[in-house]
Specification:
By secondary structure, the protein is an alpha/beta fold. It has helices spanning 21-30, 45-55, 69-78, 90-97, 110-118, 134-142, 158-165, 181-186, 189-200; strands at 9-13, 35-39, 60-64, 83-84, 103-104, 106-107, 123-126, 149-152, 173-175.
Length: 203
C-alpha cells in the first residue's frame, strides 16, 4: 500500500534525546499513527530510527530532511523504511531512486512537480505547504496535474489538516503538532497518544 494511504497524518518528529525514541513511537502507534518520520536534524536521529526499527514492530519508521546521497545511505542503514526530502535535486533524485525503499521527494512549484513526474513519480511531498500556497495552491495543481498526489507538510495544524485531506490530490499530511516539545521533555506519552488518536480520526 502507498505511504499516502496508511494514515491521514504522518508525524514529523525531531528527537533530541534517543531515550525518548521508543516510548514516543509506541505512543504514536497506540494512537493509530504507525507511519513515523524522524527528521535528520539532530545527532540523535539515526540512533533513534535504529531503536524504533528494532523495538517497535508496529511502527513504519522513516527518515525526513534527506538532503544528500550520504543521508540516504545512513538512513537506510539505520533501518528507515521510507525517506522524505524537503526538496529534490537531480543528484538526490538518483540517490532516492537507488535506495531500495519508498520515498517522498519534496516539491513546491509546478515545474518541480512536473520534473519529478517526468521521472515517473506520482507521490510527492509538498513543502513548505502553508508558505508555498497551501490549500488553494494544491487545488490549482490538481487541474493540470491530476495524476500526482501529495503529502503536504509545513505549517499544518489540527485546525487546517482537514482542509488539506479533503483535496482529491492529497493522500495524507505531515504534522509536527503531535509531539510537543514539552510532552517529550516530561515523558507525557499519554498526551502524545491522545493527539495521535485525534489525528488518526481525521479521515
Amino acid at each position: 500500500m502507498s505511504l499516502l494511504d496508511l494514515a491521514p497524518v504522518i508525524p514529523v518528529v525531531v528527537i533530541k534525546d534517543v531515550e525518548t525514541a521508543v516510548p514516543l513511537a509506541r505512543a504514536l502507534v497506540a494512537g493509530g499513527l504507525p507511519v513515523i518520520e524522524v527528521t535528520l536534524r539532530t545527532p540523535a536521529a539515526l540512533e533513534s530510527i535504529a531503536r524504533i526499527a528494532a523495538e517497535v514492530p508496529g511502527a513504519r519508521i522513516g527518515a525526513g530532511t534527506i538532503r544528500t546521497g550520504a543521508d540516504v545511505a545512513a538512513a537506510v542503514a539505520a533501518g528507515s523504511k521510507f525517506l522524505v526530502s524537503p526538496g529534490t535535486t537531480p543528484a538526490l533524485a538518483e540517490a532516492l531512486e537507488s535506495s531500495g525503499v519508498p520515498y517522498l521527494p519534496g516539491a513546491a512549484t509546478a515545474s518541480e512537480v512536473m520534473a519529478l513526474a517526468e521521472r515517473g513519480l506520482r507521490e510527492l511531498k509538498f513543502f513548505p505547504a502553508e508558505a508555498a500556497g497551501g490549500v488553494p495552491y494544491l487545488k490549482s495543481l490538481a487541474g493540470p496535474l491530476p495524476d500526482v498526489r501529495f503529502c503536504p507538510t509545513g505549517g499544518i495544524n489540527p485546525e487546517t489538516a482537514g482542509d488539506y485531506l479533503a483535496l482529491p490530490n492529497v493522500g495524507c499530511v505531515g504534522g509536527s503538532w503531535l509531539t510537543p516539545a514539552d510532552a517529550l521533555a516530561t515523558g507525557d506519552w499519554a498526551r502524545v497518544e491522545k493527539l495521535a488518536a485525534e489525528a488518526a480520526a481525521l479521515r
